[in-house]
Each structure stands twice: as C-alpha cells, then as structure tokens.
What does this fold into?
Amino acid sequence: MYQRITKKQCSIARQRADAIIRSVKQKLKDKYKFTPRLVGSGNWGTMIEDENGEYDLDYQLLLTANSPCYDKKSKKFPAPTQIKNDFFSAFERSKKGEEVFENSTTAITLTNKDGNLYHIDFVIIKTYPDNDYIIRRNNKKETPNINEFTWNKLPQWKEAYKYFKGLPPQEKQHLIEDIIIPVKQKEKSKSENDPTKLSSSALFVREVNKYRCQPKKK
It folds into this structure.
C-alpha cells in the first residue's frame, strides 16, 4: 500500500540533499558549475511512501556554461561518461553513516539506511548550447558490465512544467491522484539497474505530456 507524504514529512531528506549538494559543489568547483533544482514528486506534491515507509526525492543538477570544463569555442562539455564518473566520485566522498550511492541508469541515487528511509535521485542535465539533455547509461552489448553514458534529449520537459502550472487545481489533483501516482507505484517496484526505469521527474514529464496531448472531452 502506498501513502502520500507531505513536504514537511520529508524535511530530513531535503536538508540532507542540500548538504550533499553543497559538498559536491565544493569538490567539483574547479571543473563544474551547476544549479540544483528540486523537481518531480518533491516539487509537485506527488511523493508517496511504500509499504516499508520509503519515499524518494528528485533533483536536477543543471550544468552551466561558466563551468571551467565547458569549451565555449566548440560549445562542448567533456564526454558524458567522464562527467557522470566525476560527479559520482564527488558524491561518494560526500556520504555519511549508512548512506549508499549507486550509479544508476539516469541518476546518482542515494539510499539512506539509518532509520530515515528515503532515496534521492540526482540527475545531471546540460542546457547548453541549445537544447536540454540528460545523461543516461547506454552500455554496449559487447561490454555490458562497463558503464558508458550518453546525452539523451529530454522530451518537452519545459512544456510539461508550464502546462502543469497552468492547470486549474481540480485538474492538477486529477492528474496527480489518478494518473501520476498509480504509474509511480509501478515504477518504484523496478530495480535501479532496470534500463527502463525512469526517475520521478522524467516520469512526471512523460505523463503530463501524454495528458496534454490527449483530446479533451467537451
């Protein structure tokens, strides 16, 4: 059975996420500059906890063009595999106690096991030079155990957020309660290494855009 939880209930996880982000920023300051943003369930009030009392938050780490590693002439960041590994190393060096970090398909996932059961996904996104891309694992069939990452375009995520903000309260509630949360329940049952598993924010964007494109009843 899955239960809705409030922003107040997950304040411990949010405070810990903020501390980790500050630590990662400091460790990567000579190479990367990024802006963090709470998205998905944590931002839109669609958080759920499962039968074990576990819940999740999602953050986007938006790489900026003033990153020392960004080549303004060629308009390129380093290879996505290098970026993901650099960030994962910084996260690993920022953990405390019973925390575990996993280099999952689209995110760096924190699992906390010290009594406050939560997961936090941190996904890396670039918004330069022209479009929005997320880093996603795409291992080769010949070397499935070697992690390789590529840039993947985010499908209409700005349009999704703008559309959702403009919905009347009753329609927002319908979209959250009857569409997004049931889909999240199925997604949470997938393994972190399942290549089809979506982060909460990616799932939110997909479902909002599907709803946005549906013919509306008159």
